[in-house]
Design a protein that fits this description.
The protein is an alpha+beta fold and 103 residues long. Helix content is 33%, strand content 21%. It has one domain: Rossmann fold (3-Layer(aba) Sandwich), CATH 3.40.50. It is globular, with a radius of gyration of 14 Å.
């Protein structure tokens, strides 16, 4: 079984309402990666989070990919979180284009 390291820092300084969201996501994420899945599906994982929490989740996803070799299919409207990806596909006018890059 994988060792899961979650860092939840400075929760008292977060905007009201985000603490439980972050803790809930951390617990759900830890249960998900405990079995070391080959593929992790993430639909708007940072949709309701402040920028600092978004950065924390992005770091966690990137580390999961690197340490456990888990492929992550992430759907988001946030172009900033796409910066952590090795490959980005964008849908524009109903068409999918692929932009490859190394992260």
């Amino acid at each position: 079984m994988a060792t899961i390291r979650l860092a939840v820092r400075n929760l008292t300084r977060r905007p009201a309402g985000t603490t439980l969201t972050i803790l809930g996501m951390a617990v759900a994420f830890s249960f998900t990666v405990a079995n070391q899945p080959l593929l992790l599906l993430a639909d708007e994982p940072t949709g309701n989070l402040d920028s600092r929490s978004t950065e924390d989740i992005a770091t966690l996803l990137k580390r999961t990919n690197a340490e456990y070799k888990t492929a992550i299919l992430l759907v988001t409207h946030d172009p900033g979180i796409g910066k952590i990806a090795n490959k980005v596909s964008r849908m524009i006018d109903g068409r999918i284009g692929i932009e490859e890059r190394s992260a």
